[in-house]
Design brief:
The complex is a heterodimer of chains A (153) and B (246). In chain A, strand 4 and strand 5 form a beta hairpin. A 6-stranded antiparallel β-sheet of chain A has the order 2-1-4-5-6-7, covered by helices on one side. With 153 residues, chain A is an alpha+beta fold. Chain A is built from 5 helices and 7 strands, in the order H-H-H-E-E-H-E-E-E-E-E-H. With 246 residues, chain B is of the alpha/beta class. Helix content of chain B is 36%, strand content 23%. Chain B has 7 helices and 12 strands. Chain B has a 6-stranded mixed β-sheet, sandwiched between helices. Chain B has a 4-stranded mixed β-sheet with strand order 4-5-6-8. Chain B has a two-stranded antiparallel ribbon with strand order 10-11. In chain B, a hairpin with a 2-residue loop joins strand 10 and strand 11. In chain B, helix 2 packs parallel to helix 6 and helix 6 crosses helix 7. The longest helix of chain B has 21 residues. The termini of chain B are far apart. Classes of the chains: A alpha+beta (153), B alpha/beta (246). The interface between A and B is medium-sized, with 16 and 31 residues. Strand 3 of chain A pairs antiparallel with strand 10 of chain B, so a sheet runs across the interface.
């Protein structure tokens, strides 16, 4: 009896961790933003720079992500295990690209140099360290960046 | 007559002990991302150094550059105005963002002042403080040592007019009162980040722990030992670098 209960508990805990894998992220960036990232129809990516006041300025034209690219991006972004929530790097955040959610006041700026991203909406700006997913996330960003450069040529 | 010599001897001994611990604290408490953590570092450092000065029989002087006082100009003005006697210990402590560029050869980072988007090279601070002629110069920085593109790197502000090269509890005295030379420490090696947590900087917390622990050792502590133990305690996060010169 004890064994069955233990097995059931383990199974339940396993299911729970699979379902609820963005609870910390949601608490940080807001449930609305988490839902937007998951459900958006159109996501654009654009190159950026910082002006002298360290404000983000958009450069050139955006590219829009294909269904496959969008799925890959959302899978990478929406996972608590892909971030360090207990610490931040003492490096200067200088983004190279941003992801834009069309028709929404949501933008995610990414710096592959420092493995950090900043989720920005009208009210908040949250910096996250994504080192645990950098091995998968950065190559994806580079791939998209090459595509973006190709479009400009 | 013998009473006169006794008094003279007493005055001589007292003057030998008349040393000051100058604590120069610079912390980027206004930074929107790590300001809360940096503020804890500054608080920890201020309280610990005050205790150390009392327990090692040194006079304590504090120069604190946080909040709106944390600017390159005010820090350099403060460094220039600093008056140091030959028996004094000077501690320069920084907590905040750090950076380096590919062009930079020395292993020490540049210290970032977020409100101005400007920086100060650690090397300039070391040279300037060495020129003050104190007994022990300690430069401890808890900042990233990661690369930035030259294009984005903040302007470095070096206002140093460099002069000729010039650092009770018996264990704390050994570290802060008897040690001499120059010690430069950064919380991470070239190309590596340093981490800020809700409790303070990973490096600053570990260093403070080792300095506190030094009071209770059976043998006299050395700075080398303190830094080795600090490094080993945080090796899974970052790799501190240090240099001790006579």
């Amino acid at each position: 009896m004890k064994t069955i209960a233990l097995v059931l508990m383990t199974l339940l805990m396993g299911c729970q961790s699979d379902i609820d894998h963005t609870s910390i992220l949601s608490a940080r960036i807001g449930e609305k933003n988490t839902a937007l990232i998951a459900t958006s129809k159109k996501i654009g990516m654009q190159q950026v720079a910082l002006d002298k006041n360290r404000e983000i300025i958009l450069l050139g034209d955006p590219i829009f992500l294909s269904e496959q690219e969008k799925k890959e991006l959302v899978q990478q972004l929406l996972n608590d295990r892909h971030y360090y929530f207990d610490r931040n790097k003492k490096s200067i955040f200088i983004p190279e690209v941003v992801f834009l959610w069309e028709g929404e006041d949501l933008m995610i700026a990414v710096s592959t140099l420092s493995n950090q991203l900043r989720v920005i909406d009208l009210k908040h700006s949250t910096l996250l360290d994504y080192d645990p997913m950098s091995a998968q996330f950065n190559p994806m960003i580079i791939r998209l960046f090459v595509k973006l450069q190709g479009q400009e040529e | 007559m013998s009473r006169f010599f006794l008094m003279l001897f007493f005055v001589f001994c007292t003057s030998l002990d008349a040393a000051t611990l100058h604590t120069f604290i610079v912390a980027d408490t206004c930074d929107e991302d790590i300001g809360f953590s940096v503020a804890l570092d500054a608080k920890m450092m201020r309280s610990e150094m005050k205790q150390i000065a009392i327990q090692s029989g040194m006079e304590f002087k504090e120069y604190c550059y946080t909040d709106e006082k944390m600017s390159t100009r005010q820090v350099w003005d403060g460094l220039h105005a600093l008056e140091v006697d030959k028996n004094d210990t000077v501690l320069f402590y920084f907590s905040g963002h750090g950076f380096r560029t590919k062009k930079k050869i020395p292993e020490w980072p540049n210290l970032y002042f977020s409100s101005e988007h400007k920086g100060i090279d650690v090397e300039d601070v070391v040279r300037h403080l060495q020129g003050k002629g104190g007994r022990l110069t300690l430069v401890i920085t808890d900042a990233c040592n990661t690369y930035l593109s030259c294009l984005f790197s903040p302007l470095l502000v070096a206002k140093g007019k460099f002069f000729a090269i010039q650092g009770v509890d018996h264990h704390l005295r050994a570290l802060f009162f008897e040690a001499s030379g120059t010690i430069v420490v950064n919380s991470s090696k070239t190309g590596e980040p340093s981490w800020a947590t809700a409790q303070g900087g990973v490096f600053t917390i570990a260093l403070m722990k080792q300095i506190k622990r030094a009071r209770y050792l059976s043998s006299r502590p050395t700075w080398e030992e303190i830094f080795m133990l600090t490094s080993s305690a945080i090796q899974e996060y970052q790799t501190p670098i240090y240099q001790l010169t006579e």
